[in-house]
Amino acid sequence: MPSNPEPAWGAGQRVDRQPSSLSSTGITPVIATGVFVRLLEAHFADPANIRNSQLRAFLWADSDTDIDPLTTRINILPGYKYDTRLLEQSPSVFVKRDECMAAKFNLAGKATTHLEQNGNYRGENHLRVIRGAHSILCCAKGALNSETIAEEVFYRMLEYSPVIQDDLKFGDFEVKSMAPAVKMEDDKDYFVTQVTLVWQIVHSWVLQPIAPILKKVSSSVNIL
């Protein structure tokens, strides 16, 4: 079982949260994939966390436990580890990164310049808003089973969205949609239901003058 299980917070309870270690390292699209995988692992690791009683027999467990993966385990993996053979053993949840887009602020993306007290110019601070999305693909045998898992994911991520945004320093974080179940392969009864998350982060950096690029570079044209 994970060492940091999902907290049990009562309705209306005031929660004093410690900032995540990711608050200092910063979120990137790849890190966000790992964060969402870890949140789902923690949720499905304990039957007390699971809203739907029909799903409490399908627990996530790491490889160090003695839970039989053929009867009780639900696979929770990043999208690049997708393998149809996993579905033959148990339901699976895959977290896949979708497209990310960068947008400028006003003033061509420049926020401020860096000047020392003596007036020396030390570069420009640039900002971009990175908007992205992740798809949580809930796969199971049978459309109802797929939608039941997706509904569990949808409501839990929805309920925790304010905490996820605040603790992990997303500029914005929303649970956008839950799609209907879609059959995965014509010759098999496996279905996938997609839950879509959208998020926003701010990326900043400083451009410093290091060398006079292209300064005093001459060119000539030879006419034959």
Describe the protein's topology.
Elements: H1 22-25, H2 29-44, E1 75-78, H3 84-87, E2 92-97, E3 101-104, E4 110-115, E5 121-141, H4 143-167, E6 172-178, E7 182-183, E8 190-207
Parallel strand pairs: 1-2
Antiparallel strand pairs: 2-5, 3-5, 4-5, 5-8, 6-8, 7-8
Note down, in words, how this protein is organized.
This protein has helices at residues 22-25, 29-44, 84-87, 143-167; strands at residues 75-78, 92-97, 101-104, 110-115, 121-141, 172-178, 182-183, 190-207. It is an alpha+beta fold and 224 residues long. The longest helix has 25 residues, at 143-167. Strands 1, 2, 3, 4, 5, 6, 7 and 8 form an eight-stranded mixed sheet that branches. It has one domain (26-207). Helix content is 22%, strand content 30%. β4 (110-115) and β5 form a beta hairpin. The model has no long low-confidence stretch (mean pLDDT 79). The chain contains four helices and eight strands.
What percentage of amino acids are in beta strands?
25-35%
- How many β-strand runs? 8
Structure class: alpha+beta
Counting H and I runs of at least 4 residues, what is the number of helices?
4
- What is the total number of structural domains? 1
Mean pLDDT: 79
Large-scale geometry: elongated
Order of helices and strands: HHEHEEEEHEEE
Query: What value does the Rg take, in angstroms?
Result: 24 Å
In terms of quaternary structure, the protein is: single chain
User: How far do the termini sit from each other?
Assistant: 77 Å
